[in-house]
Amino acid sequence: MTEKGYIFLPKTADAKFQAFGMTLEEALSNAAYAMFSLMVDEKVAEKEERNINLSAGDIEHLTVKFLEELLFLIDSESFILSRIKSVKVEKKGRYLLSATIRGDNLKNYRFREVVKAVTFNELKISEEKGRATIQMVLDT
Asked: Regarding beta strands 79-92 and 94-105, do their DSSP bridges make them parallel or antiparallel, or are they unpaired?
Protein backbone atom coordinates (compact mmCIF):
# COMPACT_ATOMS: atom_id res chain seq x y z
CA MET A 1 0.00 0.00 0.00
CA THR A 2 1.18 3.52 -0.71
CA GLU A 3 1.31 6.32 1.83
CA LYS A 4 -1.43 8.14 -0.10
CA GLY A 5 -3.73 5.14 -0.33
CA TYR A 6 -3.77 5.03 -4.12
CA ILE A 7 -1.52 4.51 -7.13
CA PHE A 8 -1.93 5.42 -10.77
CA LEU A 9 -1.53 2.62 -13.30
CA PRO A 10 -0.29 2.80 -16.91
CA LYS A 11 -3.04 3.79 -19.35
CA THR A 12 -2.64 5.20 -22.87
CA ALA A 13 -5.48 7.68 -22.45
CA ASP A 14 -7.51 8.76 -19.44
CA ALA A 15 -6.42 7.97 -15.87
CA LYS A 16 -6.43 4.52 -14.28
CA PHE A 17 -5.84 3.98 -10.59
CA GLN A 18 -6.16 1.60 -7.68
CA ALA A 19 -7.31 2.89 -4.31
CA PHE A 20 -6.71 0.90 -1.14
CA GLY A 21 -7.99 0.80 2.39
CA MET A 22 -8.48 -1.38 5.41
CA THR A 23 -12.23 -1.02 4.75
CA LEU A 24 -14.41 -0.30 1.73
CA GLU A 25 -15.09 3.17 3.16
CA GLU A 26 -11.38 3.94 3.34
CA ALA A 27 -10.87 2.70 -0.23
CA LEU A 28 -13.78 4.92 -1.41
CA SER A 29 -12.19 7.91 0.31
CA ASN A 30 -8.85 7.17 -1.33
CA ALA A 31 -10.56 6.80 -4.73
CA ALA A 32 -11.97 10.31 -4.28
CA TYR A 33 -8.54 11.63 -3.26
CA ALA A 34 -6.98 10.01 -6.34
CA MET A 35 -9.55 11.68 -8.60
CA PHE A 36 -9.04 15.10 -7.04
CA SER A 37 -5.24 14.78 -7.12
CA LEU A 38 -5.57 14.94 -10.91
CA MET A 39 -7.49 18.21 -10.73
CA VAL A 40 -5.48 20.33 -8.30
CA ASP A 41 -1.99 19.86 -6.97
CA GLU A 42 -2.20 22.27 -4.06
CA LYS A 43 -3.71 21.77 -0.61
CA VAL A 44 -7.41 22.68 -0.56
CA ALA A 45 -8.75 24.50 2.50
CA GLU A 46 -11.60 23.06 4.57
CA LYS A 47 -13.92 26.08 4.52
CA GLU A 48 -17.24 24.44 3.63
CA GLU A 49 -19.01 21.19 4.48
CA ARG A 50 -21.43 19.04 2.45
CA ASN A 51 -23.41 15.90 3.22
CA ILE A 52 -23.95 13.21 0.60
CA ASN A 53 -26.56 10.44 0.72
CA LEU A 54 -26.75 7.92 -2.12
CA SER A 55 -28.13 4.47 -2.85
CA ALA A 56 -27.52 1.85 -5.52
CA GLY A 57 -28.28 -1.77 -6.25
CA ASP A 58 -24.65 -2.87 -6.12
CA ILE A 59 -21.32 -1.65 -4.84
CA GLU A 60 -19.97 -0.88 -8.34
CA HIS A 61 -22.83 1.51 -9.09
CA LEU A 62 -22.55 3.06 -5.63
CA THR A 63 -18.82 3.70 -6.17
CA VAL A 64 -19.43 5.39 -9.53
CA LYS A 65 -22.35 7.42 -8.13
CA PHE A 66 -20.21 8.64 -5.22
CA LEU A 67 -17.41 9.91 -7.46
CA GLU A 68 -19.94 11.35 -9.94
CA GLU A 69 -21.59 13.26 -7.08
CA LEU A 70 -18.22 14.80 -6.22
CA LEU A 71 -17.80 15.86 -9.86
CA PHE A 72 -21.34 17.26 -9.85
CA LEU A 73 -20.47 19.45 -6.85
CA ILE A 74 -17.63 20.99 -8.85
CA ASP A 75 -19.94 21.78 -11.78
CA SER A 76 -22.98 22.91 -9.80
CA GLU A 77 -21.45 24.65 -6.77
CA SER A 78 -17.74 25.11 -7.64
CA PHE A 79 -17.05 22.96 -4.56
CA ILE A 80 -13.71 21.13 -4.57
CA LEU A 81 -12.92 18.37 -2.12
CA SER A 82 -10.30 18.76 0.59
CA ARG A 83 -11.15 15.99 3.05
CA ILE A 84 -13.69 13.28 3.62
CA LYS A 85 -14.71 13.63 7.25
CA SER A 86 -16.76 10.45 7.28
CA VAL A 87 -18.16 7.87 4.90
CA LYS A 88 -20.35 4.93 5.76
CA VAL A 89 -21.67 2.15 3.51
CA GLU A 90 -24.50 -0.12 4.59
CA LYS A 91 -26.39 -2.88 2.81
CA LYS A 92 -30.11 -2.75 3.55
CA GLY A 93 -31.49 -4.46 0.47
CA ARG A 94 -29.73 -1.72 -1.52
CA TYR A 95 -26.32 -0.26 -0.80
CA LEU A 96 -26.57 3.04 1.08
CA LEU A 97 -23.77 5.59 1.37
CA SER A 98 -23.67 8.58 3.67
CA ALA A 99 -20.70 10.92 3.72
CA THR A 100 -19.65 14.26 5.15
CA ILE A 101 -17.03 16.09 3.13
CA ARG A 102 -15.07 19.31 3.53
CA GLY A 103 -13.68 21.58 0.85
CA ASP A 104 -13.56 25.04 -0.68
CA ASN A 105 -14.63 27.09 -3.67
CA LEU A 106 -12.80 26.11 -6.86
CA LYS A 107 -12.15 29.76 -7.76
CA ASN A 108 -9.44 29.82 -5.08
CA TYR A 109 -7.34 27.18 -6.88
CA ARG A 110 -5.59 26.57 -10.18
CA PHE A 111 -7.37 23.74 -11.96
CA ARG A 112 -4.85 21.32 -13.45
CA GLU A 113 -6.81 18.66 -15.35
CA VAL A 114 -10.49 18.11 -16.03
CA VAL A 115 -12.03 14.78 -15.12
CA LYS A 116 -14.95 14.53 -17.54
CA ALA A 117 -16.54 11.36 -16.23
CA VAL A 118 -16.28 8.39 -13.91
CA THR A 119 -16.48 5.17 -15.90
CA PHE A 120 -17.25 1.51 -15.38
CA ASN A 121 -14.26 0.76 -17.65
CA GLU A 122 -11.97 -1.75 -15.89
CA LEU A 123 -13.89 -1.22 -12.62
CA LYS A 124 -12.94 -3.88 -10.09
CA ILE A 125 -13.77 -3.86 -6.40
CA SER A 126 -12.43 -6.48 -4.03
CA GLU A 127 -12.89 -6.87 -0.31
CA GLU A 128 -10.99 -9.26 1.87
CA LYS A 129 -10.64 -9.23 5.60
CA GLY A 130 -8.66 -6.11 6.45
CA ARG A 131 -8.19 -4.91 2.84
CA ALA A 132 -10.36 -3.33 0.16
CA THR A 133 -9.23 -2.31 -3.35
CA ILE A 134 -11.00 -0.24 -5.98
CA GLN A 135 -9.58 -0.10 -9.52
CA MET A 136 -11.13 2.16 -12.12
CA VAL A 137 -10.63 4.49 -15.06
CA LEU A 138 -11.56 8.17 -15.18
CA ASP A 139 -12.29 9.92 -18.48
CA THR A 140 -9.91 12.90 -18.62
From this structure: antiparallel
| Superfamily of chain region 6-139 | Archease domain (3.55.10.10)
**pTM of the entire predicted model:** 0.92
Please, which pLDDT band fits residue 46 given cuts at 50, 70 and 90?
very high
Over the stretch 52-72, which tens digit does the pLDDT of each residue have? 999 999 999 999 999 999 999
* CB-count exposure of residue 34 (10 Å: 0-12, 13-18, 19+): buried
Helix axis angle, 59-77 to 24-39, nearest 10°? 40
DSSP at 1? -
Domain spans of the chain, in order of start: 6-139
- The CA radius of gyration of the chain, in Å to the nearest whole number, is 14
Q: How confident is the model at residue 3, as a pLDDT? A: 64
As a whole number of angstroms, the distance between CA 38 and CA 54 comes to: 24
Amino acid sitting at position 102: R
**Residue 15: what residue type?**
A
